[in-house]
Amino acid sequence: MSTRPTVVWFGLDLRLAENPALWAAGGRIAMVAEQVAGQASGGGGKTGLAADHPNAKAVFWNRRYEPAEVSRDQELKTVLRGDGLLAESFNGDPLFEPGTVLNKNGQPFQVFSAFWRTCLGKPEPAPPAGAPRKLPRPRIWPESLAVSDLGLEAAFDWAGGLRATWEPGEAYLRQVGWREFAYHLLFHHPESPHQPLRREFSAFPWQSDPQGLKAWQRGKTGYPLVDAGMRELWHTGWMHNRVRMVAASFLVKHLLTDWREGAAWFWDTLVDADLATNTLGWQWTADCGNWRACRAPGYTDPGKLRPPCSQKQGWSWARATRSRLWIMSRPAAAPWQLWHKEMRRNR
Ligand SMILES: Cc1cc2nc3c(=O)[nH]c(=O)nc-3n(C[C@H](O)[C@H](O)[C@H](O)COP(=O)(O)OP(=O)(O)OC[C@H]3O[C@@H](n4cnc5c(N)ncnc54)[C@H](O)[C@@H]3O)c2cc1C
After folding, report:
1. Each residue of 272-283: pLDDT tens digit?
2. How far apart are CA 24 and CA 6, in angstroms?
3. pTM for this structure?
4. Which of 93, 217, 225, 241 to mutate to test the pocket of ligand 1 (most atoms within 8 A of CB)?
5. The domain containing residue 178 runs over which residues?
């Protein structure tokens, strides 16, 4: 076995377990690099990486699927290979490599249920690998705090009971299927974060309403469920899926504000911000995506009916999600009256 080391680049994915790039490097790892991409010269000269680590024989990393990262990875591979290094990327994220799930005609699926059925008919993805038992120490440790100094670890194992009793069921797996579908759509439509997939929506007369947009962002619309969700988002970076749908619906269907404004706000504020799923969520809410959940005649996705002003539904959804903690007051019988009051107050 060659003694020349392999550099493993940790980008977004910092896991030691379930990390195929780390596994592929085997025992030959001598270093991990945080910023390989920034070191690519791109101009045909040696990359900073090759210059800094003249002994390295390979660079491995887990690939990303956002359009900009796909091009960056390709460029990086060309540059590193030009430097005489073995450059390989691995799938450490979706269950099925985007672009590999196609219909009988070799075309991308546009119906989720058919896409997911095909995924489930494929050989099961390999079970996740654990963390390597041993990782070589760097010659010099960089100056650092201990993880425990950051106070990030929970004082007690709050998820222990859940872990011991919960078994992912079909409904959960289906949600993961939606995530797969989102990656599939982004792969086939790299323009989708900026372009509606139903082209006719390019000409949709969205209204410019900076004041309304600001009220929505700050959770000051007067609609309790929308506001609770938006305040929760701002304070915690998270919102339940149902509440995301209601809040997003309010922006695009009530304020008639361009879905891209909402997607940009979610992108900036969600801790789980993800280009593929965020784009799917927003195009889905704005009904400007070109895919369907199901092909059955007469099928209506119940999630498409999301009036934010039905008091009963608002309360039951708020109760079902932890967003209720962010409701400031009991909802008014007619929240649209509050909307006008809030807007006057914010003027
Ligand atoms: C407008 C809008 C924007 C969204 N933006 C994002 C985003 O930026 N990042 C993000 O990860 N999710 C996004 N979602 C999808 C969904 O809201 C979150 O994935 C979900 O709330 C995560 O909660 P959970 O981990 O409890 O999910 P669970 O219900 O436990 O599901 C398990 C996993 O499946 C995936 N998943 C669940 N629901 C969906 C869904 N509707 N679409 C695609 N994948 C799903 C997620 O990876 C999730 O962690 C968005 C949804 C909407 C309506």
Report:
1. 999 999 999 999
2. 10
3. 0.86
4. 241
5. 94-131+172-188
